[in-house]
Design brief:
This protein is α/β, with parallel strands linked by helices. Helices cover 34% and strands 17% of the residues. Helix 2 (80-90) crosses helix 3 (92-99) and helix 18 (474-487) packs across helix 20 (530-546).
Length: 653
């Protein structure tokens, strides 16, 4: 029998014959048969705590989910209404459908995978379920069901942070308050000093924060008693709090029901162990494909790194401890070229450049220039400058950046806001001082292209699944921008740059915060990460300014967008930069005057001006507007001079 395709097959149970089970295999629902087969296969080579083989042994202490909730003969002694009510009390799925509603008033109906979780009678459960698939709803519905249908239930809700517990309590309260009959049964409902709901049948629902991993020992939850324990985001919770606060409750009270649920982090935590190594736990693993709209969700995969997609949407373990950047991607990015050769060549038409600068008084300054080949879409480190600690001063590091700006004429300069605030002001001052007759126009332009990036702040972005605006931590946002570029094969770095290579390989995720934010660190602290930070500042500059990761903004290598000057005339519009594609080039001979041509198949770059011929005599996109911008600058300067009797430095042009 195929384990994958026939887990739920009830027609042939010969593979389960002769097993010692806590239920009659012929009287339970298919989900129990599937669970049994899954557990037997998963632990076929394992041993129990007494070193006895688990081969053909099922040790989950459950009673199964019966096909028939009530004996048919009892139907004769109940009225139809009483019979329906009795069945509801035996089935949380049916009870929720008849008693709970969504905010819009529609009944809460469990999806098939949610129904399996709710009907499972295992006292030990681990829910490894992807984001946005309704696991919090399942738990909230279960809590309400057990609190109202069974008297004197002590239900304990825990999570790493108060906000997680609050989310569950808010959903529980919502379900209760939307049903007047349930709401009337609530005697007390408080949120301080702890969350607590008391019901007239003597059931209580209490909520505590356990603390994040490594932050606390769960003192608040110590000494509590419970009949049911639910722990949200278990893989992010402090393990000492779980061991010292929750597990003792399970050991001192007879048959406590425990449910831990989370998306995985990739660390070998207690949550990992109960999911993968403990045969007493029933693990439920569902990824995003259980959603009815999973194909729409899949379209947003480009907005995730591979590891994030693995954890958040596949609910797989991944390997956070392996490193932020996969060695295979780093190997692929290494190319045989030198920064010295790139410096001699200088800016190339058809490319655009962004500079990233990381300043640190203890370690010096790192300045990284990254160029993007617009037609090819790839990014290449073209220049690096280190200002060592021994020669580091505010003026020397700023002057180094000014020189690199003069050489590469970047679109943007992104600097670290944390240690670079003083340098940021110095750059602004130097730029203003050049805004005068005879001043250095390229240095004067710094004021227009200089950006501060605060890694400790938040970035407003859109949730890839719900598309709602949300605040994302700036540091992971920046790191993820470069990770995705590596994953797509868009990064090129010099194989001679052993410092940057080693910093890529040394960069790790030390832990995940309760809010899901990775905390980065280094395997070997002597390797440092400042050049890597400068690289990432430049990359996030590309991401923010040009949106290069969005699918509709990526210019593929299959064909280049037409030249702006070619658009203005009839005839062929394929740019000369596609000549290396040989016979694969499309033979485009139609008028392509619209910004998007189905024959070309790519959006034109943001700097293309469809309506007017451009003033530049040079081909390419990166500097087509340069002469026009210079003319506008000179016009503003002349207007300012005519409107003022003052002479000398003009700082408000």
């Amino acid at each position: 029998m195929s384990l994958i395709t026939d887990l739920y097959d009830m027609s042939d149970l010969s593979d389960l014959a002769g097993l010692k089970l806590p239920f009659d295999i012929n009287e339970v629902m298919p989900q129990c048969v599937a669970c049994l087969r899954r557990q037997l296969h998963k632990f076929r080579n394992a041993i129990d705590e007494n070193s006895k083989p688990l081969h053909n042994r099922f040790i989950i202490d459950c009673v199964g989910v019966p096909k028939t909730l009530l004996a048919p003969k009892l139907k004769t002694i109940f009225s139809p209404e009483e019979w329906a009510q009795a069945q509801e009390l035996m089935d949380p799925v049916l009870w929720a459908q008849n008693w709970l509603v969504h905010p819009d008033g529609s009944p809460w109906i469990a999806r098939p995978y949610q129904a399996e979780v709710m009907r499972c009678t295992s006292p030990r459960r681990a829910l490894r379920i992807s984001r946005r698939t309704g696991k919090t709803d399942v738990v909230s519905v279960e809590i309400v069901f057990h609190a109202f249908t069974q008297g004197d239930q002590r239900i304990l809700v825990t999570a790493p942070q108060k906000i997680h517990t609050e989310e569950i309590f808010n959903r529980v309260r919502g379900f209760i308050h939307r049903n007047p009959l349930l709401s009337q049964s609530v005697e007390h409902d408080i949120s301080s000093p702890i969350y607590k709901i008391e019901i007239s049948n003597k059931s209580t629902i209490s909520g505590f924060a356990l603390g994040a991993r490594g932050k606390t020992e769960g003192l608040a939850v110590r000494g509590q008693n419970a009949d049911r324990i639910y722990i949200d985001e278990m893989d992010y919770a402090d393990e000492k709090a779980i061991i010292g606060g929750l597990f003792p409750i399970m050991q001192t009270t007879a048959k406590v029901y425990f449910t831990g649920f989370s998306t995985p982090t990739g660390f070998k935590s207690i949550y990992y162990k109960i999911c993968e190594d403990d045969p007493k736990y029933r693990e439920f693993h569902y990824n995003y494909k259980v959603l009815p709209h999973w194909k729409e969700v899949e379209k947003d995969k480009v907005n995730y790194t591979e590891l994030d997609w693995c954890h958040e949407m596949l609910a797989e373990w991944g390997e956070s401890e392996e490193g932020v950047y996969k060695p295979s991607y780093i190997d692929k990015a290494l190319r045989a070229y030198s920064y010295k050769d790139q410096m001699i060549t200088g800016p190339v038409h058809g490319w655009r450049y962004v500079i990233g600068a990381d300043w640190n008084e203890k370690h010096g300054a790192e300045i990284c220039v990254i160029g993007q080949n617009i037609s090819g879409g790839y990014f290449q480190v073209v220049d690096l400058r280190s200002v060592e600690k021994s020669e580091f001063t505010q003026i020397s590091s700023v002057q180094a950046l000014v020189e690199m700006n003069q050489r590469w004429r970047p679109e943007k300069i992104y600097v670290d806001a944390g240690n670079g605030s003083t340098n940021f002001e110095l750059l602004k001052k130097m730029s203003l001082q050049e805004r005068k007759a005879g001043g250095n126009r390229i240095t004067a332009r710094i004021l227009d292209i200089l950006k501060k990036y605060d890694s400790g702040a938040s970035i407003v972005s859109r949730d890839p699944v719900t598309h709602e605006a949300r605040k994302a931590p700036a540091k992971p946002y920046m790191v993820n921008a470069s990770i995705r570029a590596f994953e797509q094969g868009f990064i090129r770095i010099s194989s001679e740059d052993k410092i940057l290579e080693s910093q890529f390989r040394n960069y790790i995720i030390q832990r995940i915060s309760p809010s899901g934010t990775p905390v980065y660190g280094m395997r070997d602290k002597s390797v440092q990460d400042h050049r890597l930070d400068a690289f990432n500042l430049a990359m996030v500059g590309f991401y923010i300014e040009f949106g290069w990761l969005k699918a509709d903004h990526v210019i593929t290598q299959a064909v280049a967008a037409p030249s702006p000057r070619q658009i203005a005339s009839k005839g062929a519009v394929v740019d000369d930069r596609t000549k290396d594609l040989g016979d694969k080039r499309p033979n485009v001979s139609e008028d392509s005057s619209s910004p998007f041509s189905p024959l070309i198949g790519a959006y034109l770059p943001a700097r293309t001006d469809i309506g007017n011929k451009l003033a530049s005599n040079r081909p390419g996109w990166a500097y087509d507007m340069e002469i026009q911008e210079e003319a506008k600058y000179n016009q503003r300067r002349r207007s300012k001079m005519r409107g003022s009797h003052r002479s000398g430095l003009r700082t408000n042009i």
